[in-house]
Structures are given as C-alpha cells and as structure tokens.
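Checklist before submission:
- one chain only
- standard amino acids only
- sequence pasted in full

Submission:
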Amino acid sequence: MTSKPWLNYIIKTGLKLGLIVVVISAFYLIYLDATLTRVFANQRYQAPALVYAAEKTLRVGDSISQAQVIDVLERLSYQRSSSTEATGYFSVAGDRLMVHRRPFDFADGPKMSQRVELNFHRGKIATIVSWPDGRQLQHIQLEPQLIGRINSLSNEDRLLVGLEMIPSLMTETLILVEDKNFYHHSGVSPLSVLRALAANIRAGRTVQGGSTLTQQLVKNLYLTREQTLWRKFHEAMMSLVIDYRFDKNTILETYFNEVYFGQDGRHAIHGVGLASHYYFGRQVQELTADQVAMLIAMVKGPSYYDPRRYPERVRQRRDLVLRLMYENDLLSKPDFIAAIETDIKVRASRRLVEDSFPHYLERVKDELSRIKLPPNWQENGLKIFTALDIEAQHRAERVMADGIPGREIQDLEGAFVVSDYQHGNIVALVGGRNANQVGFNRAIKALRPIGSLIKPIIYATAMSESETMGLNSHVVDEAVTLTDERGKPWKPQNYDDEFWGDMTIYDALVYSRNLPAVRIGLQVGVERLITQLRKMGVVTPIRDYPSLTLGAVEMSPLAVSRVFSSIANDGVFQPLKAINAITTHDGLPVYENAKEVKKRVLSSKVAYLTRYAMAGVVSKGTAHALGEAFPGTPMAGKTGTTNDYKDSWFVSIDGRYVVTAWLGTDDNKTTWLSGSSGALPMVSRFYQQVKPEPLSLVPVEGLTFQSFHQKQGTRIPDNCQQAIVLPAIPKPLAENMNCDAQVEEKSWLERLFGG
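Returned file contents:
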C-alpha cells in the first residue's frame, strides 16, 4: 500500500503540536502549582474586622423591665414565638420571659446555647432559671450586637466559619444541587461538561453549566466572568491544581466562605456565615431547612434571586431545592411539607448593621491603629469587642440632637462622653449634634477651654501637697491683682462680680468661686498643676500662665472624662478605651485590653474629699438642678463656663459612670449658655433614661465627719448653728472652743479651781 505523504505530514505535525501542547501545559501546571498553591493556602480571601457592642449581661436583681429585655432581644434579631425549642426565640407569659440564647464565641471563650426562664417583679429580674433542669442562675450573657465592620480595600464582607460550624444539611444540599460528584472528580468533571453542552445545544442557549464547585470557586477567587475558551481552560487547569494540592473539605469550606450573596450598599456579602446574618439575623448553625434551601437557591444568582425584590421567583427556586432534598432523603416528608409551606421571610432591612455609630467607630479605628495586630489578620478576620452600651449611646445621641429645648442657637454644636470609670471603658461617645454625620468628631478632636472644671483639680492638688489642707481649710474670696503672661495687670473676677470674704474650700468649690481657686492655685504653683494634669492623662499643650487657675487650658471632652475618671476611681488613673478585646473570626484571642495599665495619681483620701465637695455642687451648689431632678440619688458634678459664654461644660459622677457634656460653636461664638443652663440639662435628660447609680459618700479610712466653722474652717462643737459637717482627718476640738471659732478664756476663779 502506497503511503500518502500529506497524511504522514499531518500526523507528524499533529504529534509535534500535541507534544508542544503537553509540554506547555506541563510547564503551565508547574507554574500554577508553584504560585496558586501558596496563594490559595495563605491568601484565599480577605475578611473584615467585625465590630461588636458590649454584650448584655442580665443579672438577678437588675433594675430592668421585661419590656426593656424584649427590646434588647429584638435588636439581636430574636423572634417572638410560642415555642423556644430552637435558639434565637423567646416567649412571654405574664411576668415570665423564656429565652433560648444562641451559641456565640464571646471574647472570653465560646458559650453554648442556653435556654432560661427570667421572672420579673416590680421592674427587676427576680430569678433566672436554667431550663429544663431548673437550676437557679445568677446571670445570663446575651451575645453582642454587630455595630460595624472595618473592611479591606476590596470591600468584601464575610464572617469566616469552619466547615464543622455549617449544618450538614447545608453541605449535603449544596453538593446535591451544584456538584453531585464533588467527592469523586479531580476538580473538573468532563461528563458534567458534556451533559451541559448537550443540554445547551438542545435548548439553543445556555441553560446549564458544567462547572464543578472547585471551578466555581476558582472563578470567584481569581478570574473574571468573561466567557472565552482561554478563561475556561485557565479555570480548568487551576481547578486541577487546587484539587490535587488540597483536600475536599478545605475546598468546600473555602467555597462556603467565598460564595457571593448580594450587596449591602458598597459592601459585597460573601459566605454563608454573613449571609445568614444578613438575610435572617441568625447564625449559620441556626438555619432551618427552608432557610438553607433559600441560600442554596441563591447561589445560582443572588441578584436574580433577590428575596426582597423577587420573593416569588426565589420561592420557586427554593421549592425546587426542597423537592430535591426530599427526593434524595435529606428531608423527611413532614419536614418537607413544613418547609415548603413556609413563606419567604427575610430581614426587612437591606443593611447588615442597623445602627450606625460613626463617632464611636472612629475612636475604635483610632485605637485599632495603635494595637499591634498580626500582619496577615485579614486572612482570619477579626472580631472587635467594644465597651459600647447601645442604650446609653442611643440616649446620648438623642439628647445631643434635641439640644436645648426652647432655645434655638445658631450653629450650636456639642459632644457627649459616657465612661465606666471602674473598668476604664468608653460606654458612649457622640461627636456632634448629628450623630450620623461623619466628619469632625468633637468628642475627640475639639480642644476647648475647660473653665471652672479646673477647680476640683486645683483643690485636689492642694490637698495632695499638704495633709493639713482639707475641705474645711480657710480661704478668702476677695479681689486680687496679678501680672499676666504679657506683663499686664490681671484682675480675675467672680461670675457675679461679688466677693464673699472668708469661706472654706468646700464652699468655694460648691459655689464655684473664682478668686479662692486662683489664690489656692497660685499657692500650689502653676507648674505643680500642670504636673498633676499630666498624671491624669492630659497630653495636649498646657501653658504655664496664671490664667490656668481659671481653666485656660484646652481639652477635648474625652480628655475631660479621663481626668475626672481618676477622681471617680479613688485616685487611680487608667486610660479610657473603646476596645476591650479582639479575637479572630473563629475565636482565637488576638488582644485584650491591658488591665495592668493603672497608676495612682491621687490618694484615696484626696479623691474622696474631691468627690464629696463635687457632691455638694449637685446637692446645693451650681448644679443643684441635677440634685433636684434625682432626689435621694447622691451624685457629684461640676459646671464649667468660659469667657463670654463660649463654652458650656458639665461633668457628673454617679456610682458607675462619668458623664461629660460640652456645648459651643465651631467658630467660637457666644452661646449665652452657662454650664448649668446648657450642658447640665443635657446630662439630666440623659439620666432620665439611663438611671444613675447612687454615689457612695461613706468616708474612706482615715476620714471622719466633723463639725467646722462655716467661714473660718475651725473645728467647733457639733451643736453650733454655724457648724458645717465635713469629712476630714480627725482633729481634736480645742478646749473651751465656742461656736464663733474662738477659745473662751477662763475666769480667774475657773483657773484657780481648775474649772
């Protein structure tokens, strides 16, 4: 038989080309193996830092009503139902509230789901009972509310979950619907491709895809969506490499964390962990069969199957998935019927985060920038646990937005800070009248003169310098002429332009007299005052001028809270922080607020004496309006007003919080608001909702209540009308001391007979 030269040529050429293709493909696979494997292992996706408010702990004896607890539960997307068999539900029967708490990885470790019964009596939690075992509990911890996220540059949002956290029903359903042979192919399924090709040819259009889960994952992670042969070839080769290098469970877990589920504004929702929160307000392990089916149905196209825009379209697709689940024995008949009869129910809001707190989040970001984090934290994501109290924050925002009812002041702005002084936490922070406006955060960045807020620091410093000085110490309220920093005469005045003469330090502080503060401040020394302010956390510039004694130092509202937190916390300074702890998405600890960063800046005696005098400010002094609003609840406070009424300040201390309010204008115009007419009413309205805890005024060790002359400060008998009772280091009563603070001389007869 004669050979045909052209046929031989074609065969040889074909073999050569085939060999070239094989060699190129081999080198390409080697290249992919070297690069793709490293990237997939370490940089599959980026996860955001999810920011949480403080968890709500309900304790026996707490003054909280049933309605308030229900409000907390509904904010956490708990649903009211007659049955609480499943997590995330609560029921109400009279004064009894049954709650099935979700499992959650708290900052201090994971806690399993827990079902409890709360019984209320007269606005308090009377008992907490574990159900069904009947154990008496002292508290129950609810998971914190998500308040924000800090994204990578990609703006992709996801909550990383391990495969063990994903319900087996969801895993089996995904494989059933998207890739039946997932555990039996090598990343690419030729039979699936042929079946899809045949179906598309019959339909005359693309009706079926042949991509495996691995190919879908590769496309989502690394490739564009263009439909070209080169992209499909690239996709197939990458899938082969990933399937060869990584086990099936790793690929499946990555898919569950990568799959796209829609948009929350400019943020893309990726992964079933975040999608379950976004659509149902639930954790992925809580999903019911109909919810699992809906999410698997949306994998085909989250925009086309958007449950909020096209509920009927989604229901048809979901029901198809449910039928497949039933036909393949993933669901029993009763479960299938129950699921298919369930309406499409998703969260009404298109926002993952319902409440936006941009001013507080700015502080969180600022602290986060100073915390040493793992360089690759985006691979595992972060959970940032903050001290934000949602109720306190909402109330602070409300009082700031309301301003001063009945008084319209052009361009009036302000700031509000609430701190838990015992734990060093920033509980609430509002940086402007418009709490949702991102911009200049006055709580952190507005440096304003503090006026009379300096007076407690002056007297505390003076009492620290000398043990003989106390609240009973004598001071004079009379005119004084000094030389200012420019060498000119300076004659400080009281706000009423009057002089009260002799008085005690206690009354000087209670009634906010300027001239006694100037005298004591200069006696202590401006440099010593600056040193004390530095100890109490002030880092901004302080000029060593005599005017410092009248508050000529600029501080932010947050810095003011920091200073007064030291006084409230028995003289112990600790930084005020928003961030309490940080973990990865799977609960591994990354950072914990350093509890050891504490130092004593005032003795406990001096701190107590300062608080006691500030309590007098509230009970009868310049802040008496607050005391009248909350009779029977001891609190301390201090008003502050600057020249020409440009700044209105008020700081309060109760048994739990330091609350700081400031009002003014950004261009430093006169507001005609004093501390008592502007900032104080705002704090009072805040306390109407966030009830103050009584401040203990029991003297610390080494101090006792004694009677002193109201003007001279001398120890006098207790039955004197001129007496003022003050805490002080025990002082002996001089023999023959009368009520006018004078020692009466004995007559010659008394001296003779020792009378």
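Reviewer check: The longest strand covers residues 412-420.
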